Structures are given as structure tokens and as C-alpha cells.
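Quick one, probably user error.
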């Protein structure tokens, strides 16, 4: 089917996706599907056109390889960056969590210390005014004199 477009134009030949245009002898040939790249005996890569007429097969392969390489490199960089940031943020979060736990424990200890100091002060005042109960019998009746 592709050979019917030989000696016509590149645009007409490449309307069919399975065709390959060769500029050396202006022929339209079936794309060799079994091999990924057309063999040089069929048509040299610099003179072969596939898909579009304005770019040769060699430049098309190089451009596709460059684009694929850029995509792979950018994906690799993104993955490494994300893993590094995630690991870094996890360690930062762990440090913040430890610091908050230490502060919480310090506040609890300070609160207990202030509570103990208040109790001592209140016991002192109760002792001064005779309101402190005996520790032997805490349920003794309070008597007014």
C-alpha cells in the first residue's frame, strides 16, 4: 500500500502511519515493524522521514532520546528531593516533639513544686492560728473555746 505513494510527495506518503519516506530516491516504503529502526540498506536515517516531513529520522530519534532522558532525570531528582525532604521533616518533627515533651514535663514538675510550696505555706498559716489538725487523728472534732 505504501509503494503506491512513491514518486508523489512526502506529505501524501506520511498520511499513512505505517509508511516511511526516503529522500534519497523519493520512495514511500512500508515501515519495517520487526526492527525498531529501519536498516541502513533500506534507507539511511538522515534521509528517512516518518511521522512528519520536516524532521529526519535521525534527529527524531535524538530528540525523543533527549526528551526521555530529561523526563527520567527530572523524575529521579524529584524523587530524591522528596525523599530527602520527607526524611528531614520527619527528623525535625521528632526533635520538636521531644522538645515539647521535655517542656511539658518541666511545667508539670514546676507545677508540683509550686503546689507543695503552697501546701507548706497553708500548713504554716493553719499552725499559726491553731487550725492544724493532729496527724494522729485527722477526724477529730473542731472545738471553739
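Nope, works fine. Designed sequence:
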Amino acid at each position: 500500500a505504501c509503494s503506491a505513494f512513491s514518486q508523489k510527495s512526502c506529505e501524501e506518503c506520511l498520511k499513512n502511519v505505517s509508511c516511511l519516506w526516503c529522500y534519497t530516491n523519493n520512495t514511500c516504503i512500508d515501515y519495517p515493524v520487526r526492527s525498531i529502526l529501519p536498516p541502513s540498506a533500506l534507507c539511511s536515517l538522515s534521509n528517512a522521514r516518518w511521522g512528519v516531513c520536516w524532521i529526519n529520522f535521525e534527529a527524531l530519534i535524538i530528540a525523543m532520546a533527549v526528551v526521555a532522558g530529561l523526563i527520567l532525570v527530572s523524575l529521579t531528582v524529584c524523587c530524591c528531593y522528596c525523599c530527602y525532604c520527607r526524611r528531614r521533616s520527619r527528623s525535625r518533627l521528632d526533635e520538636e516533639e521531644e522538645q515539647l515533651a521535655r517542656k511539658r514535663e518541666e511545667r508539670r514538675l514546676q507545677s508540683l513544686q509550686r503546689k507543695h510550696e503552697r501546701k507548706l505555706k497553708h500548713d504554716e498559716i493553719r499552725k499559726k492560728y491553731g487550725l492544724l489538725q493532729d496527724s494522729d487523728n485527722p477526724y477529730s472534732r473542731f472545738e471553739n473555746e
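Strands lie at 19-22, 27-30, 48-49.
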